[in-house]
Amino acid sequence: MSEPRPAHHRADDAQRRLRPAALLFEPPEALEDEEHFFDLESMEDPGELLARSTELAVAFQEAADRATEFQAIAAAQLADPKRFDRLSPAVIAERADWSEDYARKMIEFGRDLLEGGGLAAE
Length: 122
Hints:
- It is built from 5 helices and no strands.
- It has 122 residues and is mainly α.
- Helix 3 (46-78) crosses helix 5 and helix 4 (89-96) packs across helix 5.
- The radius of gyration is 19 Å and the shape is elongated.
């Protein structure tokens, strides 16, 4: 198992988890403007705004689903009994900021994905 991290590192990790990941396809100057979001604020046609915001919502949901599958695969790999350095569900839960029960479910989900040949959305 890993050594406990100092409290200031845990606080840094918690702060990092609370901030959303940078959207790499947004221009850097747009990230500085809190009101800017994929240029949606500049759309005047409500039909166009609905269509574009719906496209973004679907894309983000698909990205979140795919990221969750990668989390599950990583959890399953880290918990693999064949690894000499395998991690317990409790340690995986702590690293991912999950409950231990959720970590067990994610490990099982990841094993299912690995046995089934990978990600469903490929």
